[in-house]
Design goal:
- By secondary structure, this protein is an alpha/beta fold.
- The protein has a single domain, classed as NAD(P)-binding Rossmann-like Domain (Rossmann fold, 3-Layer(aba) Sandwich).
- About 45% of the residues lie in helices and about 15% in strands.
- The protein is built from ten helices and ten strands.
- Strand 5, helix 4 and strand 6 form a beta-alpha-beta unit.
Length: about 300
Amino acid sequence: MERIDTKWTVKGKYVIITGATSGIGLAAAKELAMRGANLGIVARNQEKANKVAAHLKAIGRNAGTIDVFLADMASQQSIRQVAADILKRLPTVDILINNAGALFLTRKLTVDGIEMTWAVNHLAPFLLTNLLLERLKENGHARVITTASHGHKMAKKGIRFDDPSAKGLYGFPQSLLGGANIRYGETKLANIMFTAELGRRLEGTGVVASCFDPGLVSTNFNQDNGWLARMTMAVMKRFSRTPEKGAETLVWLADSNEMLASSGQYYRDLQKIIPSQHARNMEAAKRLWEVSMEQIRG
């Protein structure tokens, strides 16, 4: 482990965070604001984002500037537009936090013709990161943090490159055998593999890529998938962490002065952990990068 020569602190740094209007993202945004960070909230709903921004400004005297950027993370055009807006408005971006995520129990396609869970959970952070990467590199030191999950282990066969639109997982009989959950696991596996390959590509740039498992957290996640999903989440909440506990490692990765010399790592509870065997396959990670580049060229 290697320490940065100059004391790193999130105070005064500019942080872009997606999925910050609820759950883990909101808990992290509150803590980062209290620590003096300047925040750019990327959200889909203007009214909700404005309320969150007002709340963040009011929670403490250390809070920096709070800006709102609008984007639909299921639309590549929308992501490109918000990236252009960020680059136009902000001369500096120090930290990018890819936190927005979703799970869709039925197979849906985005306006780009991409399966929805894959588009929101993997392609959105992949595209946004690549669009902001040069601005991050300009700092000499910056961070990219992505919310992954222990759920990546549900993808027991790894990334199904032969079925990019997940027709097999949502068709009979896989749909009755947890196909949607396996797809979610694939996207979380993709988060870890993306981070590993990003870390490799960023060697020597000063930009550190990390991802983390927040644990089972009591949030509003999976509330739009019908009554059965809501009941399941209600039961799981009894065994869940608070959003604040779930955000603890995220805040640590953003604010800690203890950064590993090698990036591309996966964390839980303030320490590096080893993900699944599939997540450690660097050849597959390179292939995922190439496939993802093709998907965002659309």
